[in-house]
Amino acid sequence: MYVSLLIEGFNMLFCGIVGYLVVRLGMIKVEILRQLNSIVFKVGVCALSINLIAPFKFSEIDWYWCIVYAIFEMVLHAFVISIGWVFHQRDLLKISTNILTLTWSNLVIFGIPIMDSIFPKSFLIYPILASVPLILFQIPLMIVMCETIESKREIKRKMEADIENNRSSGSESQDKKDKKSTDTNIGNTSFQNNQENISENEKSLVENGQEAFELEEVDENNDRIDNENGEGKDTDSNSDSHIDSDSDIHIEGGSSSDNGITNRTQSKYSRQNDTKYELSNHKKRIIIFTIKRVFMNPIFISVVIGFIYSSSGLPYPKVIAKPAQTLANLVLPLAMITIGMFVYQHKIISSGMKTMIIYVSIKSFLVPIVSLSTFILFGIKGDSGKAAFILSVMPAGIITFQFGTEYSLRNDIITTCLIVESLIMIPILIMWILIIDATGLF
């Protein structure tokens, strides 16, 4: 068993180095290799699942074992999702399926040499069957929850932007009002100054006129006084009309202000309605996207095909089994080559040291504890319990990198966890095997 661990670890390291050198030396374009890897991944996963399920009959499957393993997967996934939901960690929600669950993807490829040396290969069928409820229920739940968090954040950002726009528009209108009032005050001040200058000039003219024309008749003085009184009346009427026009302007300004408030209120409600409409359409797109992803998933398709062939009762020919196994065996090296390409383009610990420690600790210690408690609680003992526990202790599947690519997840975190978990896999796995052997739990 330990020799098999060392051999598989060396093979993974070799494939990763090959991928790194291929990109560094420019031997092949990255996009071509990535597309080829994606095609082989889908075909290889289908071939591998069919190759394991098709030879079995329903009567030979231990459904209780399968149900318990599915419960373990779902409990673990629900626990991690609840942590991500409470703390609003969208990245944890997005990659929890890849990092913590879907363990079958690594076990049926990376674990075959180890399982063959300890247990029958038939144990590998149960993680595959257990992954079906995970695909049908928990992956859609994960996607919807992630997108719901993102939608709420987007709505919050839009509302904050609307509030900021309203504040800026309000400040601009207030500045305009202040500027208008300032201009009005300046105009009134200049008008008063002009009136004072005019009155002083008139006073000087009157004094000079009295000195020059003191011999004029009283009638002319009376006529002048009458004329001045007439001009005063005209001035009063003009001032009254000026006041009326000012009041009209003030009234018109008030109505325009009311209209501005109404328009802003209407625009606010229209923006809220637009946001709700966008959220509704976004949820519809999420549902359609999730349904397509679930039913076009290679795991789901391969399990359905395998069950159909198994229920037919036909023997599984070796002509199909050997090519299918060959395709399945290509998934691991190509996945490691892709990881090597990713490492060349990014840092090995690109997600940060803190994030790496958290996720690796969860996978290396939390997952085994949950699996051990689940299998003991449901009475899974003997080889079945030990096999299930070893499957859960193994590092996250190399194939999860491909799932991260397909679902546009955080491949930086996934790659970091895969590399570190693979490096510490041997001591961690040996430690847990020694613990269960010493305690006799199974």
Written description of the protein model:
The chain is mainly α and 442 residues long. The chain has a domain at 2-154 and 299-439: Up-down Bundle (Na+/H+ antiporter like fold). Helices cover 85% and strands 0% of the residues. The protein has helices at 2-25, 30-53, 63-86, 90-100, 104-107, 112-118, 125-212, 218-295, 298-312, 318-345, 353-377, 382-393, 400-406, 411-439. The two termini are 18 Å apart. The model is unreliable at 98-113, 202-219 and 231-258 (pLDDT under 50).
Descriptive key words:
Na+/H+ antiporter like fold; single chain; globular; 442 residues
Number of helices: 14
Write the element-wise H/E pattern from the N-terminal end onward. Answer: HHHHHHHHHHHHHH
Give the tally of β-strands: 0
SS strand fraction = under 5%
Global Rg: 41 Å
Question: Residue ranges: pLDDT <50 for 5 or more in a row?
Answer: 98-113, 202-219, 231-258
CATH topology descriptor of the domain at 2-154 and 299-439: Na+/H+ antiporter like fold
Summarize the biggest pleated sheet. Answer: none
Helix coverage percent of residues? over 70%
Structural class: mainly alpha
CATH architecture of the domain at 2-154 and 299-439: Up-down Bundle
End-to-end separation in angstroms reads 18 Å
